[in-house]
Design goal:
Blueprint: H1 10-33, H2 36-63, H3 70-92, H4 95-104, H5 112-118, H6 130-140, H7 145-148, E1 151-152, E2 158-159, E3 163-169, E4 175-181, H8 185-206, H9 213-225, H10 229-243, E5 249-250, E6 263-267, E7 272-273, H11 277-282, H12 287-305, E8 307-309, E9 317-323, E10 326-331, E11 337-339, H13 342-357, H14 360-369, H15 375-383, H16 400-412, H17 414-423, H18 427-444, H19 451-466, H20 471-505, H21 513-525
Parallel strand pairs: 5-10
Antiparallel strand pairs: 1-3, 2-3, 3-4, 4-6, 7-9, 8-11, 9-10
């Protein structure tokens, strides 16, 4: 119909013109920008396609089929959607992988299908070509790696979200790990952030409450700093200065003569991931001691120094075995840090201690100092466990019921949780990320320690050291109160379990008393 009103041959000429112009734009982008804008368009379209496919699947899952089959059907949709996101993150690379890794750490709220699938992003990243690696070196050093190092292996030993790590050898003989940023990552970063924020804004149109775009906007500057490897080297040295007094903790040395903005050269470490349970057992490493060390060093950062590693996932924490039972906990990847000012650290110390003691007046007061209205919601965000008025203890080990409860809380009280996240100081967002990440590691170890109490004791120590002129005497009183409360709670539990055990032996127990006894025994071991 339209052809009647158009000049003869117009459509053919128009189509040819579009192809010629499109080809010209593509060729120019390849010549001048190494397909930077073409790649951004492809990543944008790929992300939109995945978002639409996932939305369609969930719509069908929630509006079709019998209600009794919905839960099983949703599990299938979770897994299908998670695999789609995994594939998109791997194909898009860069910031997409970084975001996916962060999502995988939220294993207390998100369905297991998401967290288990996306955890593969810690190990699965697409390797870069030799040509692209040489381009980075030529831009930063003016020469290729084989002329700078005595030895340089182009086969990566690790591939992360922003860079790859290669093994090399300096001309002075030291074995080194060379971290090389993906080519043009700094140039594509703005368009990728813009795409993710755009998708979040689109989601907000359909799902008013589910918008995390403000987090990306607020944290954009911190993520941009991670692209500067000179900044990462300085962070590593500051971290080592803060933690050097700890036994069995190590940060690799930086070789500044071989470090530029997009290339970081550090000491080579032979080791294995902190979540490699088989290797931990093989080297006779005590998981309880290891996890105490893990939570002590990050408590030091959160409560005392204020210089907090924001990305301590399993791929960034290595175990260097020295002899059976003896090891170093090696901290890697220091690109993403946040500084928590002293006034926030003081309030956080007080809040943490009060939460463990169930001192709700102090919790409320400390939360207000952090500009937080719903202190109970804040407690659940920090501890990632159900916070209830009754019961004396914040749980370390979560049952299936607890995890289901947290997921229900996240779904039904999403407004309050989002308001709590928005209220808290922006510095605290990375603290929450840190806590989520190291908690995920401890869960892989079977939760061998009582994390909240260990961190509460460290918070008390920091209050004594820094915040009171007569701090020692005040700390002694607070510590005595704390230990007495814990001892009282444990005694109460022991008496209750003894009573149930006696009833069980006399054959007068309830049907579920045996299960209660088993739960109590697990609690005593914690």
């Amino acid at each position: 119909m339209l052809r009647k009103f158009l000049p003869k041959g117009f459509l053919r000429k128009f189509s040819t013109g579009v192809i010629v112009v499109g080809g010209g734009v593509l060729a120019y982008d390849g010549y001048a920008n190494q397909f930077l804008y073409t790649g951004a368009s492809v990543r944008f379209l790929r992300s939109c396609k995945v978002a639409l496919a996932i939305s369609k699947d969930y719509y069908l899952a929630l509006h079709k089929g019998d209600k009794g089959d919905t839960e099983d059907f949703l599990k299938e949709v979770h897994l299908k959607s998670a695999n789609r996101i995994l594939e998109a993150c791997l194909n898009n690379g860069g910031l997409y992988i970084k975001i996916g890794q962060g999502v995988s750490a939220i294993n207390h709220i998100l369905p297991m299908e998401y967290t288990k699938t996306l955890s593969k992003l810690h190990d699965k990243c697409l390797p870069s070509s030799k040509e692209n690696i040489q381009k980075v070196f030529l831009k930063d050093f003016g020469d290729v790696p084989e002329n700078i190092f005595e030895e340089f292996d182009y086969k990566p030993v690790a591939a992360a979200s922003l860079a790859q790590v290669f093994k090399g050898k300096l001309k002075s003989g030291e074995q080194v790990a060379v971290k090389v940023q993906y080519n043009n990552l700094d140039k594509r970063f703005p368009s990728d952030v813009g795409t993710l924020i755009f998708l979040q804004n689109v989601i907000e149109v359909f799902f008013k409450n589910y918008n995390f775009g403000w987090i990306l906007k607020d944290l954009r500057a911190n993520l941009e700093k991670e692209l500067d490897f000179c900044n990462e080297g300085a962070n590593a040295e500051r971290c080592w200065k803060d933690l050097s007094r700890f036994k069995n903790v190590y940060v690799p040395k930086i070789f500044w003569s071989y470090t530029k903005k997009r290339v970081l050269t550090m000491e080579w470490i032979d080791g294995f991931k902190i979540t490699d349970i088989a290797s931990l057992k093989k080297n006779n490493i005590d998981l309880k001691y290891l996890d105490k060390k893990l939570f002590h060093i990050f408590s030091e950062q959160i409560f005392n120094s204020g210089f907090v590693h924001a990305d301590p996932h399993a791929g960034n924490l290595f175990i260097r075995s020295k002899k059976p039972g003896d090891f170093d906990l090696v901290i890697l990847d220091h690109g993403l840090y946040e500084y928590l000012p002293e006034k926030f650290r003081k309030s956080l110390c007080q809040f943490w201690e009060a939460a463990v003691l169930r001192d709700e007046n102090t919790m409320s007061h400390s939360a207000k100092e952090l500009n937080i209205k719903y202190y109970k919601n804040f407690a659940e965000v920090l501890f990632q466990t159900p916070y209830e008025n009754k019961g004396a203890n914040i749980k370390t080990k979560l049952t299936d019921e607890d995890i289901k409860y947290m997921q229900e809380i996240a779904k039904n009280n999403f407004d309050k949780i989002m308001e709590t996240l928005k209220e808290m100081p922006r510095n605290m967002l990375f603290v929450v990320r840190n806590l989520n990440t190291i908690r995920a590691i401890s869960r892989e170890h079977g939760d061998p320690i009582d994390r909240p109490r260990i961190m509460a004791r460290y918070a008390q120590k920091c209050l004594w050291n820094r915040y009171s002129l007569f701090g020692f005497f005040k700390w002694v009183c607070r510590r005595a109160k704390f230990e007495f409360q814990i001892m009282k709670d444990n005694l109460k539990l022991a008496v209750h379990l003894l009573y149930l055990d006696t009833l069980h032996m006399l054959g007068r127990s309830t049907k579920n008393s045996k299960e209660i006894l088993q739960i109590g025994e697990k609690y005593r071991q914690v």
